[in-house]
Structures are given as C-alpha cells and as structure tokens.
Amino acid sequence: MPPSIPTYFRCDPSTLCDNVACCTRPESEPRLLVSDYLRLSELTGEAPEHIWRTKGNVLLTAAEEGFVVVNLGLRHDPCVYLTPEGRCGVYEKRPTTCAGFPFLDNAAEPFLTGTGPTSKNVRKNVSHAYRCLHSIQFSAAQTRAGQELYSLMMEEEEAMLRTFWKGEQPIIPCSTVDDVLGLYLTAHRVQAHRDPKGVDELSNRLHTARPIIQQAPSTIQEQMGGTQQVQQLTFSYINAFEVVVYALYQDDIAEHFAHLDRNARIDFQRFDKERKKILRRLEEDQKQLARLRIIR
Ligand code: SF4
C-alpha cells in the first residue's frame, strides 16, 4: 500500500491566503502523476479510471519546439476535492504537486533556484494568491530538498507516463495551427460519435477555444521564447487545445487506467519511497518548519 505523504506544510485558508487561491484558481490546476491517481484511489476507494472520468482533465505542456506533452490533471475551477469549508478533502493523500507546495509551485521556483525575478518582485507579483509565501526564507537544506523533489517528480512523470501509454501516444506533435484546427474538428466528431448527448457541453468548450486557436501565430515555434505577450498567447493556445485532447483521449486514458500493469505499480512504489524520504527531510528542518508550518 502506498505510504501517506508527510505533512510538513499546512494551509490555513481562513487567514493566510486569498480564498484558498491554490485550490480554486484555474491557472493553478495541479497536474496529477499516474501515481497520484493510484494514491487517491487508495484513499477514496474509487477506481483510478473512475477518478479520471469524474474528476480528471488533461494538461498540456510545451515540451520542446513544435511538440506538446499530454499530462493528466485534475478539474480545478475550483478543485473537485475542495470541501465547502475550504479544506482539502483528500489532504493525507493529496496530489504530489499539492503536497509539495510551496516547493513544487512555479511561484516558489525563483526562491529555490535564485534565478529569474528577485524574491522581492516575486513576492509582490504573487501576493494576491500566495500571501503565505511572504515571510518565507527557505533554508539551504530546504532548497536542496525542494530541488530534489522537483527532479524526482519530473523523473517519475516521464517514467510513469511512458509505462502508462506504453509508447502508444506519449507526445502529440502539434506544430501548426492547421494541426490544431484539424484536431479540433476531429475531436468534435469523435465526441459526437461516442456520446451524442455530451456533445453540447463539448461544443461550448470548443466554441470558446476556437477564437483563441485562430488568433495564435502560425507555428508553436514562433511562440516559444518570445516576448511576455507571445508567451501568454502560447499558454492560451495550449489551454484551448486541452479540450480537444480531452475529447480525443478521454476513453483511451480511462482504458489505460483500467489496465495498469504490475510494472506501473512497482514504479509507483519506488518513486513514492524516494519522495517520502525527501519530504521527511523537509519536515526535519525544524527551524524553517516553524516559519513554514501553519498549525490549524
Ligand atoms: S487536491 Fe486538495 S490541496 Fe490539491 S488543489 Fe485540490 S483541494 Fe487543494
């Protein structure tokens, strides 16, 4: 049985952040590793494929020029596991990205790496969403552990997705707008065929996505590494594309979850053990813990 993630950081939404921003804002939607689906399944008793169908989503990442990686995610507007009291309903087995907060959050990256904007600027920029980060100074030990956790997550994601997709469709090449529009129309047809009743909801989502896709520059390559405006457009473009991938691959992903093999579970346990060790080290850093930890 997978072990629980140690709790070294506890949020107090009522006093420390703006309306549990991490759990409610669409832009902070957590990506879920295959192992996160397994862990949630352990806690709730729901089959991973059922969790996927009722609460899952796809997230796309621009991996390298002209390619987009399909990640699994969690519906997040607000998060489906957020209770009416503003608490996490699956706290003890919450997804890795949630458990790793603030160490696996983009907002924390410049703190950890010492790169990018200064800590002061970052704090100002994220202040509306991450007030709890204001007074945090990461210790050297925490910075190291945070970086290790991040690398482990990347390694696990790659390994688990490779096992999950079995080399069938880990990466969707999507280099031009024409490709996206083609997929857009295909998704509509696929969904209409699979679930004629569900097509209205999809039509609405696709309808919203279409103008964004049409505004996008002609290639993803053009968008990479450009100005901030171009980068924002890239994100809109990728977000719009998510609904298409979801329609195309929802059934395939559920099917893969239903047939997760022994190797995937062994991989999961290996990574889970390493992650537990790193999180324990974070927890043992008592001095910084006193600043980081907010006791409910
Ligand atoms: S799983 Fe829990 S911690 Fe993560 S976003 Fe949802 S409610 Fe928040």
Which sequence of strands runs across the widest sheet? 1-2-3
Number of strands: 3
Task: Please summarize the sheet with the most strands.
Answer: 3 strands, antiparallel
Structural class: mainly alpha
What ions, cofactors and ligands are bound?
Answer: iron/sulfur cluster
Helix content: 55-70%
Distance between the termini: 28 Å
Spans of at least 5 consecutive residues with low confidence: 1-7, 116-129, 292-296
Number of helices: 14
Form type: globular
Question: What's the rounded overall pLDDT mean?
Answer: 71
Jot down its keywords:
mainly alpha; 296 residues; three-stranded antiparallel β-sheet; binds iron/sulfur cluster; globular
Describe this structure in words.
- This protein has 296 residues and is mainly alpha-helical.
- The chain has helices at 13-16, 21-24, 34-44, 48-55, 96-99, 109-113, 119-126, 140-165, 177-194, 199-215, 220-223, 228-258, 262-284, 286-292, and strands at residues 56-64, 67-74, 171-173.
- A 3-stranded antiparallel β-sheet has the order 1-2-3.
- Helix 4 (48-55) runs antiparallel to helix 12 (228-258).
- It binds iron/sulfur cluster.
In short:
It contains 14 helices and 3 strands. It is mainly α and 296 residues long.
SSE layout and pairing:
Elements: H1 13-16, H2 21-24, H3 34-44, H4 48-55, E1 56-64, E2 67-74, H5 96-99, H6 109-113, H7 119-126, H8 140-165, E3 171-173, H9 177-194, H10 199-215, H11 220-223, H12 228-258, H13 262-284, H14 286-292
Antiparallel strand pairs: 1-2, 2-3
Bound molecules: iron/sulfur cluster.
